[in-house]
Amino acid sequence: MCAKAVILSSGGLDSTTAMAIARDQGHELFSLSFDYGQRHRFELQAAERVAQAFGVKEHKVARIDLRLFGGSALTDDIDVPKDRNAAAMGDGIPVTYVPARNTIFLSYALAWAEVLGAERIFIGVNAVDYSGYPDCRPEYIAAFQAMARLATKTGVEGRTRIAIEAPLLHMTKARIIQTGVRLGVDYALTHSCYDPDAAGRACGRCDSCQLRRKGFREASVDDPTVYVSTD
């Protein structure tokens, strides 16, 4: 019998690659996405497409409104940074950071995993080719792992030790893409842009778009993204 795994799925490049890795390892897939008031809600359509393409056992969308707190360009009336160079993207924590987002998401995933009897939670965080989010660091994943084993009934009773899997943590974006291609990922299904237009086309200028473009270029893989700007 396949071991169950909960996959945090934003419909983006990284989370979809993490799902492909979980599938390749033989896990039964349960995907979890969030409608949290994000300006780039087109990612939820992508997450649904990915769930269907991967034939997940169940796909849930948790609805929580992080606009209640704001504090991020993704959930508040704050402009998404555009056209930043690599130095600017690597300088400090960007305004697209959503306060405590991964902690909230992983907590939901932990609850579902405990109910399912799942042994793994997969999250597509990356600490190499990324924008400096504090909840994408190895020490954060390790800390949440320790907390999960203290805070759950299954952990305390020793019935199931739920592991937090972050297989992309030390990969460059190019390597992530190459891994996904090898595992059969169709990246045309995914969405990464922080500030898409009304038709869902990627802006091509936000940090996420720039990192995505750079990754495809360095991986020598054609980028299937539909951008507003083709420059």
What's the pLDDT, averaged over the residues?
93
Task: Please report the number of helical segments.
Answer: 8
Known CATH architecture = 3-Layer(aba) Sandwich
Binned strand content: 5-15%
What is the distance, rounded to the nearest whole angstrom, between the alpha carbons of the first and last residues? 49 Å
The unreliable regions are none
**Main beta-sheet annotation:** 5 strands, parallel
Oligomerization:
single chain
Q: Residue share in helices?
A: 25-40%
Q: Based on CA inertia axes, which overall geometry fits? A: globular
* Biggest β-sheet: strands ordered side by side in the sheet: 3-2-1-4-5
Describe this structure in words.
With 231 residues, the protein is of the alpha/beta class. The chain has a single domain (4-219), classed as Rossmann fold, CATH 3.40.50. Helices cover 38% and strands 11% of the residues. The protein has helices at residues 13-24, 42-54, 86-89, 101-116, 138-151, 153-157, 173-182, 207-219, and strands spanning 4-8, 28-35, 58-63, 120-122, 163-165. The chain has a 5-stranded parallel sheet, sandwiched between helices. The longest helix is centred in the middle third of the chain and has 16 residues, at 101-116. The radius of gyration is 17 Å and the shape is globular. It starts with a strand and ends in a 12-residue tail after the last helix.
